[in-house]
Fold these 3 entries.
Entry 1:
Amino acid sequence: MKYEPFVLERTFKAPLSLVWAALTQADHLAKWFAPQGITPGRNTMDFREGGFYHYELLTPDGGAFWGRWIFREIEDQKRIVNHVSFSDEGCGIVVHPMAPDWPLETLSKTSFTEVDGGTRVRIEWSAIGSNPVALKTFDDGRESMTQGWGGTMDKFDAYLQSIQAS
């Protein structure tokens, strides 16, 4: 079976420079980057090729989990390629806290394009590795990814609007 990447594309009514900053700077990410119902916690950013973003997500029941991005390619205000994984507090890779068959690492390719009145962001996300169970779990998770990423992008849009209104 051939697995296709999960793709999400949204256009934001915000200039490219602001969209880029809000997706690449820890102080911005700490204010919005989390799925609906989850709150961003502590984070650390080393934004450069080979660097990382390590972040905590706080659940409504008082729990927490961590994630990390490892930056593979950065093309200023055009493209970011990074590995994405769940993490422990020490930045080590761990299994998905709610889906143990989820791939240990995924690949995210995010592109940025100026369009009339805003910025289009395209995220292409795929599983890394050849574990057939993990690949199938990723492929079967499209509805959940659409919901999770959709809610996160809604929060991103609201954050961008709030910055521009202030």
Entry 2:
Amino acid sequence: MDIPSQVHDIDARSLSKIERVELTVSGIVQGVGFRPFVYRLAKALQLCGFTFNHSQGVTIELQGTRLNIDKFVRSLKQTPPPLARIDSFSEQVIATQHECSKFEIKQSQANDDAQVAVSADKSSCQDCLDEINDPNNRHYHYPFTNCTNCGPRYTLINALPYDRKNTSMATFEMCDQCAKAYNDPLDRRYHAQPVSCPRCGPSLSLTSATGDILATKETALEQTVSLLKQGDILAIKGLGGFHLVCDATNEVAVTKLRQRKQRPAKPFAVMCSDLAMAKTLAKGSDAEWQLLSSAERPITLLARNNEQDTSLSSSVAPGIDRLGLFLPYTPLHHLLLSELNRPLVATSANRSGEPIITAADEIYTHLGDVVDAVLDHNRPILNGCDDSVVQMINGQLQVIRLARGYAPLTLHWQQQVSAHTLALGAQQKNSIAFGFGHNLVLSPHIGDLFSLEAEQYFINTLATFKRLYRFTPQYLVSDKHPEYASSRWAKQYCQTHDNTENSQVQHHFAHILSIMAANQYTDKVLGFSFDGTGLGDEQQLWGGEAMLADVHGYRRIAHLKPFALIGNEQAIKDPRRIMLALLFEQYTPDELIALNIAPIQSLPTSVISNLYQLWHKKVASQQTSSIGRLFDALACLLGLMQKTQFEGQAGMLIEACANQISAQQLIAANIHFDLPLVDGVWQTDMLWQQIVALLLAPKPLDNKNAFIARAFMDCLARAVADLAAQYPSLPLVLSGGVFQNRYLLSRCHDLLKQQQILPSKQVPVNDGGIALGQLWYGIHHQQ
């Protein structure tokens, strides 16, 4: 179509007209090189004006031709800095100013209503790594090198806006060269708050296990390398806390660490120097290697590489066919690994069940008998943060522990949260969530709230976010279980603060809500919540539930037929009690003792008899529908474990066992189990009888356990698929810790290809996501 020339003239005049606009941007726009990017872009387009940080984000005033302003806006939206995320963007035309000839970056402003998203810590960028390896660079071998594209954020921030004075770097006065880089908008260290160098920044110190100084600076690093080579165990301070570190190829050292830490079986994470080293230890898809190498540098669960003769200690992950690997993410880690050229065990430094330790004094006090020496530094960690743990299943990311690199996780909600809403999370794998403005924020992993230290860490994390966002809870959401530390805190808070309200959400409903929140979905779904135990209605312990749910409520439409936890909590620690409870439904004690099942025969008859009496009289025996507990019982029946040494152990062992045979072998053997659904109840006892019958069958079958393990999980996946087929129009949610089982989730995905499954995205399907589910409920139930 021809356009009249007059229109062209009007458009040209319009585009060349001088205008001034005010842009307001929110999201992850501080601490990620956003303002330098704005500065360079404005200069390149000959726009004058200014920009500044404030508690709600970044404001930009631009003056120039309409054409160039449009180019600026388009470029900012389409190609922002790599670590930035724009959640909202507004533009308003304002009056032009006569005295406007340059573009500048102004001092940050603090507001009462903080809305900006705090960025997570990021791994070292290639530019910084190149500098620490360049003998002619002033950052050569400097373990705290960083710039706006990498380095710590969350772990050193004390208040918003994100400026140096509000971080743990406030006490480090910059040298002239660092100050020049910090103040030059064209330098990649412009306003990189942790910027420093060997002359003015933090430094290393190596101490004994009691705090005596052994060496400092580069000598500390050199001696650390020597100690690790000789098999010592060190506590090494990283971004969000200390690691316990030893040579992963040294069987004696790894065994010593297990003995000292009293951690007999839980797998250790292993840090590799680079991708090439990781590939000698594990196998992975292209997507898994990309995940391992991503800027978040998570601990990534990968299949063990059995095709190569690695020197990795067998004690790193005993009995498990997967390894948790990660790559160096700070200059300190890079320098260590490049000198050692061998994989290192690097596990969070804490006492069992307690938070990660962030200060050397705590190491001396609590782990002085575990470590041989401590590599410390003098940059305080203000906010502790563990390593994230992830895996890739069927090409989709699954976050198991949301922490460094990913957290705090801030989701932008199009609607406005009407009142400051705080969700307190669960008892295990606790995290907390905050709703304000358009932000839904899920905190980093806090941990299990079973000790005073853990509860204090929970309170400290609450205080951090309340301070950062000037957050005053008005509406609280907690778990239905009254004895959870988080539930007690919510109740006490409301009792001591007027005009606050507390809602409670059932645990497994919250699991389903968490995935709905990740997808900002509010309508009805069919949710499967396969988990450990959580308090259900009428004081029952749930954990194998199917629900029709939306943000307003749920209807339980299927669940596992309950079975007894003999001795209640003791049964979770000693799942042989669960195994026996299921067997007591089928056999008398005398019949049971006569069975040719090794785990039964290893039990004293008096124990079987006593537990039978408890089960029969229903004394100290709660009923549960938990699928997690069913995994525990099966792992005992197959002789894979006797007592639970860490959460999720049974699932890992059963999966490893199942992977010993192929799907074709299972089909050829014609082995399968059924889990009938009768009046909304999956018949657990009937499944268990089939398993026991196969175990006792006289027909010889090599590696019978592997067939049982595989058929058991196939059976669960079919039960999910059969029920889902009755609701073909509903999206599906698969949530709860049991769905961290890679085999089970993969089989579910295979069988559910015709239906929509809401992805978990970056939200943990285990209890780490509960707080977000509670928050999703809470913000939809405010008056």
Entry 3:
Amino acid sequence: MTADRDFAPDPNWTQRRDAMREKLRAAHEEASPLVMGILNVTPDSFSDGGHFDAPERALAHAARMVQEGADILDLGGESTRPGAAFVEAEEEIARTAPVIAALSAASACPISIDTYKASVAHEAVRAGAVMINDIWGLQHDPDMARVAAETGALVVIMHNREQIEAEIDILDDLRRFFDRVIAQAERAGISRAHLALDPGIGFGKTDAQNLACIAHLDRLREYDMPVLLGLSRKSFLGRALGRDVEHRLGGTLGANLFGATRGAAILRVHDVAPHVDALKIVRLLRAA
């Protein structure tokens, strides 16, 4: 589908989107993941809440992540941690759109918007974002699939659950969910080439189910779509290691490098530089 120009005021937007799509495709085919830097412009994120909620601090942190080697930045205006306060769409737009516009003007690094609200995604793409990262996989806002199709943005479909059910086979649940939502996306007019999948580590799953999703991440490659792995500093790592949120880098690196061996195409992380270095060493070892 051709992008609606109302959603793409920047004449370079389509070029940026296409370049990101091709880079992501190459990462998928070569099993050599990109690094997505997390930029939370919220006061209450579980990991870095309040650190970057002022525009100037957000822009400085974004510039630092780009300098460290981030391939894409994922910007969110509402915390998704359990118990986090709901943020009205107008407030979320006010937090994110100006930062996206400033980043798009200052850097060629592509930008993703982390939101489940269609109106926020709409304004983020207008401001320059080329990817919509929806933690409810087009299921929460009935308008999201339409906005994603009309903008022509890339879309990350994340598996999520309202409730944890320890007795279910989470891998079967992933399969049923993605079968259904991919078909829904295609009916809405979203190009299959614009989709990526995320198993949703830490969302509606037990620790054992989180580990199973990472251990068997390669099953999602059966869809022949890029897979995003987002586990940075999450609670299951803390419980496994007995570490608080500020001391989970080692666990995050270990799990992400394992996920890379299972075919992850994007690693969504708070700590960009250590992941860029670790992946560089992996590539050197593969080529040795």
